[in-house]
Design a protein that fits this description.
The chain is of the alpha/beta class. The chain contains 15 helices and ten strands. The structure holds 5,6-dihydroxy-NADP and zinc ion. Zinc ion binds next to α7.
Length: about 375
Amino acid sequence: MLNFELYNPTNLVFGKGQIEKLGSLVPKGAKILLAYGGGSIFKNGIHQQVIDNLKGFEIVEFGGIEPNPHFETLMKAVAIIKEQKIDFILAVGGGSVIDGVKFISAAVDFDGNPIDILQKRLLIKENAVPFGTVLTLPATGSEMNSGAVVTIEATQEKLAFGGSALFPKFSICDPTVIVSLPKRQLQNGVVDAYTHVMEQYLTYPHDGYLQDRIAEGILQTLIEVGPKVVENPGDYALASNFMWSCTMALNGLIQKGVPSDWATHMIGHELTALYGIDHARTLAIIAPSLYKVMLETKKQKLAQYGKRIFNLEGTEEEIATKAIEKTVEFFHTMGMNTKLSDYTQDYDKAADFIVKRFDQRGWKGLGEKQNITLEKVKSIVEMSY
Ligand code: NZQ
Ligand code: ZN
């Protein structure tokens, strides 16, 4: 097992009715910026619950953080925080609102042009405005990690950043909030979390036995509850296991001491930047092709996955190949289309565009062995057409 440090200071407050604790979680006397998205929190009553539980606090509201949050929008919140001397931010929403708030938090006291946080992928280790979250969409794990992804509208770039100062101080995760989610978002959540586990699990054999077993446990739970929770989000057993699986998939735990890949995400982000495809759906498009193109590198782990998750039998090669098919089947069960041409007519420029971008950024070798070269990226994207 590789050496590691596990640091996760987020106070995760999980369960039905936990939003009642909000007033005791926000620092006493804080002036709060309440940040939210396109307004779903007004329709499902979460906004009211937040206000009811923050009596006595001074609150300034900032709405309109879009899915795949834009740098340009977030900079407006940065100005408000400076003008109005805000000292705490509360993100109420899904991954986009939480990620947006991470950027705002980092940008307020940033010395220089905040766009550098994204374009130079700077690590934010200090000087972040403290923030908490009320999660409304299980998917990204952003509620318990220190990473985020923000889109620069002007350049059509979707860029990841993070740092130890960007963990939420607390996150309230009440599984009952998922009842108002559209089916498409529930499906997205399951597939995003599933792929997060795969990015950290489907590499090469190592001696992080426990990490593998925890990862497999999350995959099995998502396979068990995923299709059902989409049909019945009001079932608390399904909703709570779904939400907890999503958090556990990307709160850092299963990544410790083991190699990880993340190339599916890096390529997927480009498809969102180019075509506006939902994050999770870009992963369902790219992952199967990536596993096929990287079969030689990933064969042993694919075989382990095939045996332990799908009870497959045969030679290593047969199980590995079948495991990829089973993964695609699961994505289809979860309502995903797995080909780029299902989403856009304009698909055939994608491979060259992405390769050029990666080349400009100096990303010449992605994946757990840095052997996903630009040539391989091209094959992966073309195979996903
Ligand atoms: O904006 P509102 O009106 O709130 O509506 C949202 C949005 O339209 C709606 N929604 C959220 N909660 C709801 C609800 N509708 C009804 N009822 C509720 N309870 O859902 C829509 C999608 O929301 P969004 O936050 O965009 O979805 P998600 O949580 O999937 O976040 C996706 C973003 O997170 C990034 C993605 O790249 C993408 O930008 N990721 C962040 C990661 C991280 N920080 O660790 C890792 C991930 O891999 C991912 O890259
Ligand atoms: Zn993701």
